[in-house]
Write a structure and sequence with these properties.
Number of helices: 18
Pfam families: 7tm_2, EGF_CA, GPS
CATH class of the largest domain: Mainly Alpha
Membrane topology: Multi-pass membrane protein
CATH architecture of the largest domain: Up-down Bundle
Domain EGF-like: 67-106, 119-156, 163-201, 212-250
Helix content: 25-40%
Number of strands: 36
Distance between the termini: 164 Å
Strand content: 15-25%
CATH topology of the largest domain: Rhopdopsin 7-helix transmembrane proteins
Largest sheet: 10 strands, mixed
Protein name: Adhesion G protein-coupled receptor E2
Structural class: alpha+beta
Number of domains: 4
Radius of gyration: 55 Å
CATH superfamily of the largest domain: Rhodopsin 7-helix transmembrane proteins
Keywords: Calcium, Cell adhesion, Cell membrane, Disulfide bond, EGF-like domain, Glycoprotein, Membrane, Repeat, Signal, Transmembrane, Transmembrane helix
């Protein structure tokens, strides 16, 4: 058999065998759902990428093969890193994440092994991807745009950058001696005009350090030959030499100053002669030596002349000779002339020395310190052995003065020998304070000099009203005792003689061995220690005041509670008594607890103002009480009494609290500084300020005394018509007691304060303190304990008692 025939026979056999099977397979597929395949001709299985319903392995026509989401698997198992999974029906594919691409080319891949995703460098792919003044920085899968150095994000547009001003950003990139100049995206540190870089420190952004250019030594100045160059920080100044002055219209400056020589007097010494009517061999010898110094004076030897003069003055003060036998008034006169002449001579000669600071000392302790003003000086300090002075140049220099300015401090400890027994004159206000806190200075004891006498002089002659005070610090070996007071004083001369005065000077503080003073003028100064007598408070009066006011506080509180809680007795009268009790209670309470709180001046002034108001309000209510008593006595009928009540109810509150408020407001607005004294938180007696309290009080107790006498006179005529059956003796005793009590309640006893003068002052002080500290007790006793409830229908025999008890 040939091979081809054999082949065709085999094919025929196969076709005959598979025919029935194909028919069976076709029938099976018709029973399977979509996305499934018939297996073995009988069973249906879901295709790859699909899954049967839960719990089945085979599916029927009614079942659904669900798509399997391969992307639900962990990314690294499906696509790998830097790639994203994309699910499709029955399958899936992978793509590189944004910012990545396949190294092998193409777009999609099927499994991790095919993952060749690499980061794309957007900065290289697109060089213009970022805007100007910024640079592109590649990041994994993306990129960022950052501002170049020297730039920052613009807050108005986050995609734009703007220049950073390093000079104003607070970074302070340059050295303090250099000047910062901002540039685009950078800065530069340069030296200012008149400065130069330190060697090895060129102009640059970080390492520039500058130093001042000395125009005077380097010759880089334009000063006129008649001037001398003075180097300053960053500049220079052309100033006149000592003994020279600027030509008019040529002020001190770096270019335009021209000077001319000052004609120096042949001698700076005045003609020193003995005061008229005074003969002294010691003074004659002294004046002769001084005149000899003047005859031999030469500007070039001014330094030696000043030293010789200081020594001559020191010798005179060390050995006054026959001056010690002179009357104190003549000694004071010599001291005044000596101080004035010394000031004149030293002021004249101080223009000659060229040194900026000079100190002259004598063997006996006399000392002179000189200072010549230099450019840039604002405050100056001069010191001698026992004193120091601090002043402001601007305060003592004449406006427009561009020449030399000189200040001197002269200490003459021996001058106290010629100032013995000199009187002390206090300012009026200081004298008033002493009068309030102490009995005053002991007139038989003269003030004692604690410090050296110093004199101050400057080039300016007008030093009486300085714009800022001069400070002096005096050293003294003796510390003040409790009964001694220190004063900062100056030596004042007048037609009636010389004396120490506190005008324009005040003490700032005192330590054990030094005292600080301030003065608004220049002269000769010192520290005086004056004895004073401490005004000791009578301990018995203090105890009586404390006990009396404490008892009154208790009684006033009980009285106020009685008026508030007892409804049956509440009427116009009890309303007046309630307000009086409250005001007195608050006033006494504040007096006991805060009258001595003088440490804080503001708090003390507030306490004084509160006491002023409360006590004035108390006296106003006393006045209303007296008025009510008088009106009640006149209107004896029920109808008229009701009219009185309506009148009092309408006006008593505005008057009782408004009138004292008006007085206190006016007093505070006119003189607020007079509230509070160094000893008590009360009204000052200066300028009659205490009469803002005493005036209204005197008026109140005077009017109340008149009201009381008129009331007693009215009731006297009614007593005769009383029912004879009433016990006359009993009513008379009660009437007399309550009448006397009304004198205390209405404040009439305050007139005892005026009687505290003369021999009976002590007795009147005790009587005044006892009676007025117990005013609250009388109020409680009369208005509460002895009060009778009075009805409008009370009989005529009870009326006098009701009137006097005002219940």
């Amino acid at each position: 058999m040939s091979p081809s025939i054999f082949l065709w026979l085999c094919v025929l056999l196969i076709l005959l065998e598979d025919g029935p099977q194909s028919a069976r397979a076709s029938a099976c597929l018709q029973k399977c759902p979509p996305n499934s395949t018939c297996v073995s001709g009988t069973a249906c299985h879901c295709n790859t990428g699909f899954k049967p319903p839960q719990g089945k392995t085979e599916v029927s026509r009614a079942d659904i093969c669900e798509d399997i989401n391969e992307c639900d698997q962990p990314k690294k198992e499906t696509c790998g890193i830097a790639a994203d999974c994309h699910n499709t029906k029955g399958s899936f594919y992978c793509k590189c994440s944004p910012g990545y691409r396949l190294l092998s080319g193409g777009v999609k891949f099927r499994n991790v092994s095919e993952n060749t995703c690499q980061d794309m460098d957007e900065c290289q792919l697109n060089t213009k991807i970022c805007k100007s003044r910024s640079t592109c920085v590649n990041t994994p899968g993306s990129y960022t745009c950052t501002c170049l150095p020297g730039f920052e994000l613009n807050p108005e547009d986050s995609e734009l950058c703007r220049d950073v001003n390093e000079c104003t950003s607070g970074q302070k990139p340059c050295h303090k001696t250099a000047h910062c100049i901002n540039k685009v995206a950078s800065y530069q540190c340069r030296c200012r005009r008149g400065w130069k870089p330190v060697p090895g420190s060129p102009n640059g952004p970080n390492n520039t350090v500058c130093e001042d250019v000395d125009e005077c030594t380097s010759g880089q100045n334009a000063c006129h030959p008649s001037t001398q160059c003075l180097n300053t920080q960053g500049s220079y100044e052309c100033r006149c030499r000592p003994g020279w002055k600027p030509v008019p219209g040529s002020p001190n400056g770096p270019n335009n100053t021209v000077c001319e020589e000052i004609p120096f007097p042949k001698t700076p010494f005045p003609t020193w002669t003995l005061p008229h009517g005074i003969k002294s061999q010691t003074l004659s010898n002294f004046f002769e030596k001084v005149q000899e110094l003047g005859r031999d004076f030469k500007p070039a030897s001014a330094h030696d002349t000043i030293q010789d003069l200081i020594q001559e003055v020191d010798d005179l003060l060390e050995s006054p000779g026959d001056l010690e036998t002179w009357p104190h008034s003549d000694q004071n006169y010599v001291a005044t002339n000596l101080l004035l002449n010394m000031e004149h001579v030293v002021k004249k000669m101080s223009k000659a020395p060229s040194n900026e600071s000079l100190i002259f000392k004598a063997t006996g302790g006399t000392e002179l310190s000189l200072k010549i003003k230099k450019q840039g000086d604002r405050k100056i300090t001069l010191s001698v052995k026992q004193a120091k002075m601090i002043l402001d140049w601007d305060a003592v220099q004449e406006s427009g003065d561009s020449g030399l300015s000189t200040v001197g401090l002269l200490s003459t400890p021996g001058m106290s020998k010629l100032m013995a027994e000199a009187p002390l004159v206090l300012q009026a206000e200081e004298q008033q304070v002493l009068h309030e806190t102490h009995k005053g200075l002991l007139q038989e004891v003269s003030p004692v000099l604690l410090s050296d006498v110093i004199s101050v002089f400057v080039s300016n002659n007008n030093t009486q009203n300085l714009s800022s005070p001069v400070t002096f610090i005096f050293k003294h070996a003796v510390a003040p005792e409790p009964q001694q007071k220190l004063f900062c004083v100056f030596w004042e001369s007048g037609q009636n003689g010389s004396h120490w005065s506190t005008k324009g000077c005040w003490r700032v503080g005192t330590r054990d061995a030094s005292t600080t003073c301030q003065c608004s003028h220049l002269s000769s100064f010192a520290v005086l220690m004056a004895h004073y007598d401490v005004q000791k408070e009578d301990p018995a009066l203090a105890v009586i005041t404390s006990l009396g006011l404490s008892l009154s506080l208790l009684c006033l509180l009980l009285a106020a509670l009685t008026f508030l809680l007892c409804k049956a007795i509440q009427n116009t009268s009890t309303s007046l008594q309630l307000q009086l009790s409250l005001c007195l209670f608050l006033a006494h309470l504040l007096f006991l607890t805060a009258i001595d709180k003088t440490e804080n001046k503001v708090l003390c002034a507030v306490i004084a103002g509160a006491l002023h108001y409360l006590y004035l309000a108390s006296f106003t209510w006393m006045l209303l009480e007296g008025l009510h008593l008088f009106l009640t006595a006149r209107n004896l009928t029920v109808v008229n009494y009701s009219n009185v009540s309506r009148f009092m109810k309408k006006f008593m509150l505005p008057v009782g609290y408004g009138a004292p408020a008006v007085i206190v407001v006016i007093s505070t607005a006119s003189r607020p500084h007079l509230y509070g004294t160094p000893a008590r938180c009360w009204l000052s007696t200066q300028k009659g300020f205490i009469w803002t309290f005493l005036g209204p009080v005197c008026i109140v107790f005077s009017i109340n005394l008149v009201f009381f006498l008129m009331t007693i006179w009215i009731l006297k005529t009614k007593l005769s018509s009383l029912n004879r059956d009433v016990s006359t003796l009993q009513n008379t005793r009660m009437l007399t007691f309550k009448a006397m009590a009304q004198l205390f309640i209405l404040g009439c006893t305050w007139c005892l304060g005026i009687l505290q003068v003369g021999p009976a002052a002590r007795a009147m002080s005790y009587l005044f303190t006892i009676i007025n500290s117990l005013q609250g007790v009388f109020i409680f006793l009369v208005y509460c304990l002895l009060s009778q409830q009075v009805l409008l229908s009370a009989s005529i025999q009870d009326f006098p008692l009701s009137v006097l008890s005002v219940s």
